[in-house]
Amino acid sequence: MNTKVILALLFCFLLVASNEMQVGEAKVCQRRSKTWSGPCINTGNCSRQCKQQEDARFGACHRSGFGFACFCYFKC
């Protein structure tokens, strides 16, 4: 067999194998916090509240309408 053909087949195999390995990644879903009230100014406080009161993985302040709201992130 030609060396170029073998290298091309090996390259294709590596591409397929690398795509298969990414399937195991956990997806993260977001939703607006159910316990936060008022505008969200400090992402650290939002994240702490999401973890402690809503069992989320983390939280962050994001623009929502004319202000900022606290969003919590959960494993889907």
Task: Describe the structure in your own words.
With 76 residues, the protein is α+β, with helices and mostly antiparallel strands. The chain has a domain at 25-76: Knottin, scorpion toxin-like (Defensin A-like, 2-Layer Sandwich). The protein is 41% helix and 28% strand. It has two helices and three strands; from the N terminus they run αβαββ. Strands 1-3-2 form a three-stranded antiparallel beta sheet. A hairpin with a 2-residue loop joins β2 and β3 (67-75). The longest helix has 19 residues, at 3-21. The termini are far apart. The mean pLDDT is 83.
List the helices and strands and how they pair.
Layout: H1 3-21, E1 28-32, H2 43-54, E2 58-64, E3 67-75
Antiparallel strand pairs: 1-3, 2-3
Organism: Solanum lycopersicum (Tomato)
Main location: secreted
Domain Knottins-like: 28-76
Which features characterize this protein?
alpha+beta; 41% helix; signal; Defensin_plant; disulfide bond; Scorpion_toxin-like_sf
Quick rundown:
This protein is of the alpha+beta class and about 80 residues long. The chain has helices at about 5-20, 45-55; strands at about 30, 60-65, 65-75.
CA-CA gap between termini: 47 Å
CATH class annotation of the domain at 25-76: Alpha Beta
**How is the quaternary structure best described?**
single chain
The general outline is: elongated
Poorly predicted segments: none
Helix content: 40-55%
Encode the helix/strand succession as letters: HEHEE
Question: Which CATH architecture of the domain at 25-76 would you pick?
Answer: 2-Layer Sandwich
Q: How are the strands of the largest sheet arranged?
A: 1-3-2
Arithmetic mean pLDDT: 83
CATH structural fold name of the domain at 25-76: Defensin A-like
How many strands, what sense, and barrel or not for the largest sheet?
3 strands, antiparallel
**CA gyration radius, whole angstroms:** 22 Å
CATH H-level superfamily of the domain at 25-76 = Knottin, scorpion toxin-like
The number of E-state strands comes to 3
